[in-house]
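Q: what sequence does this backbone want?
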């Protein structure tokens, strides 16, 4: 598991560079990022967040069996606008209301260097926008619907009954 960079670490405000070769060290970075995301119970992670300025993101929604890996990802189309609650592993203890697209179309390379395109909505669209923003040094706090729409997270209450399968699934988690 890699150490998480936390605001105000300046690397979170830097633009990551395009990946030009997909070799062993990149595969190792991807594996470490996936493990770090899963351990932190996040839905996504961008390389900046573990101190690496390369355009790599990983995403895993609660319903995904396998994580998504995107190298050099780009949003190529955005549709609609909505307000959603969001958090970030690099801004622990806070959540906010942000403006996001309803649908996005994105392209990039998978971990084998193969071109992939994805049409996404709901949480996947939100995660793609959030993580690709990280690669450009943008954080969700830059996209708040208004400045007072950022708040400290309430300490999580213990569930009445332990869920059968570990952590309860929450809609608002992100990376
Ligand atoms: Co984040």
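A:
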């Amino acid at each position: 598991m890699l150490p998480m960079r936390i605001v105000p670490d300046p690397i979170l405000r830097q633009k990551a560079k395009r990946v030009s070769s997909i070799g062993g060290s990149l595969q190792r970075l991807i594996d470490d990022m996936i493990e770090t995301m899963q351990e932190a119970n996040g839905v996504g992670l961008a390389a900046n967040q573990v101190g690496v300025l390369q355009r790599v993101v990983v995403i895993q929604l609660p319903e995904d069996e396998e994580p998504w890996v995107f190298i050099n990802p780009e949003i190529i189309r955005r549709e609609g606008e909505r307000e959603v609650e969001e958090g970030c592993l690099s801004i622990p203890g806070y959540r906010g209301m942000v403006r996001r697209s309803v649908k996005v179309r994105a392209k990039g390379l998978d971990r084998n260097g193969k071109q992939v395109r994805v049409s996404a909505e709901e949480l996947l669209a939100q995660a793609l926008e959030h993580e690709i923003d990280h690669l450009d040094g943008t954080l969700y706090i830059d996209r708040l619907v208004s400045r007072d729409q950022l708040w400290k997270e309430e300490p999580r209450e213990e569930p009445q009954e332990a869920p059968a399968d570990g952590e309860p699934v929450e809609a608002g988690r992100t990376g």
